């Protein structure tokens, strides 16, 4: 038997005998005579997961993990062409890529939806960019929630994991935040509040996880990808005062957290996606310098960052100490609880 890339309608059409859930979880295979049937392997454990933001830094790794573990993935995208550049048919024949008009059918045939879509915030904030940052999150989340809610209760996914961010808490050099902490008063806190409010409108029969994500560390994306070149040229150092808190998480730990939440019904409500040991940014830079064998003594002044990022510099010039209390209560095991180990892995192995 060989896996086949079946048309979208094949994956989403439920059988007449109303055994939709077992049908959707089974792997579709092509037989030698050209007919198609459901594989008997992993029927009970295989998931069908629809993902927005699948072509992003986090989404790419999540898709790879799901495929490696023999789950089925549907990529909800605005551009099939762009998605195929990241996930070409030759390498990912089992993935279904769906543009917006097909999202509803994909979601109907899924066990779970993971919502990761949103414009990156580490850029210069003009009034137009700030509006787009907010709308890119709210618009997609609203569409996903609306599509889920319009389905019959028997056809809805059982879980929605919707990304949000630790920017919800605002910034502080002295406070410690966990999932019970109130929201802050700045722009990012406002974005996160509205983002989460939309997600909370999903039908109560759907298990909802709001994942407040910290600074994700990986070689080929996020903040670290911008810092590594500076350190390579001996120009790395603390950003701003260096006293601000840096609440981080290794990309692999974040993906594992999402993966566990897909399968474990105890994961619901608000969960902080951060490592258990946040550090001051100066320590983060010292550790990165040590791992790379480069000095980290040359600080980047506030005015330089503000010149490059404008108001967006608040992401790195201010910070918050956020603890993953809920994840630890649920028994989640972090592979990289300490930043030095995370950086060593990323730099030495070329982790993406």
UniProtKB/TrEMBL annotation:
Q: Name one Pfam family in it.
A: Epimerase
Entry's Gene3D superfamilies?
NAD(P)-binding Rossmann-like Domain
Q: Per the database record, which ranges form the DUF1731 domain?
A: 300-346
- List, for all copies, the residue spans of the domain called NAD-dependent epimerase/dehydratase: 50-266
Q: What superkingdom heads the lineage?
A: Eukaryota
Q: Which CDD domains did the record assign? A: SDR_a8
Q: What is this protein called?
A: Epimerase family protein SDR39U1 homolog, chloroplastic
């Amino acid at each position: 038997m060989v896996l086949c890339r079946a048309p979208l309608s094949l994956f989403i059409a439920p059988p007449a005998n109303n055994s939709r859930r077992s049908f959707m979880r089974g792997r579709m295979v092509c037989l030698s005579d050209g007919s198609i049937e459901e594989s008997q392997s992993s029927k009970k454990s295989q998931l069908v997961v629809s993902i927005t933001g699948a072509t992003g830094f986090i989404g790419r790794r999540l898709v790879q993990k799901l495929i490696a573990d023999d789950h089925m993935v549907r990529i909800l995208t605005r551009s099939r062409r762009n998605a195929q550049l990241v996930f070409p048919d030759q390498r990912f024949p089992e993935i279904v890529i769906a543009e917006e008009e097909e999202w509803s059918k994909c979601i109907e045939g899924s066990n779970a939806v993971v919502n990761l879509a949103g414009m990156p915030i580490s850029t210069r904030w003009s009034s137009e960019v700030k509006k787009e940052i907010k709308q890119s999150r709210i618009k997609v989340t609203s569409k996903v929630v609306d599509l889920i809610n319009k389905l019959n209760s028997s056809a809805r996914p059982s879980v929605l994991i919707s990304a949000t961010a630790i920017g919800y808490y605002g910034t502080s050099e002295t406070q410690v935040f966990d999932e019970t902490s109130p929201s802050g008063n700045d722009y990012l806190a406002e974005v996160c509040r509205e983002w989460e409010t939309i997600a909370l409108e999903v039908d109560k029969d759907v298990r909802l996880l709001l994942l407040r994500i910290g600074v994700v560390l990986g070689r080929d994306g996020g903040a670290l990808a911008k810092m590594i070149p500076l350190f390579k040229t001996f120009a790395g150092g603390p950003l701003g005062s260096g006293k601000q808190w840096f609440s981080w998480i290794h990309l692999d730990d974040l993906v594992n957290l999402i993966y566990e939440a897909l399968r474990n019904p105890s994961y619901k409500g608000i969960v902080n996606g951060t490592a258990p040991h946040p550090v001051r940014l100066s320590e983060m830079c010292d550790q990165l310098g040590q791992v790379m064998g480069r000095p980290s003594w040359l600080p980047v002044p506030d005015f330089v960052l503000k010149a490059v990022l404008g108001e967006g510099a608040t992401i790195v010039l201010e910070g918050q100490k956020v603890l993953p209390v809920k994840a630890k209560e649920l028994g989640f095991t972090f592979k990289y609880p300490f930043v030095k180990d995370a950086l060593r892995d990323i730099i030495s192995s070329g982790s993406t």
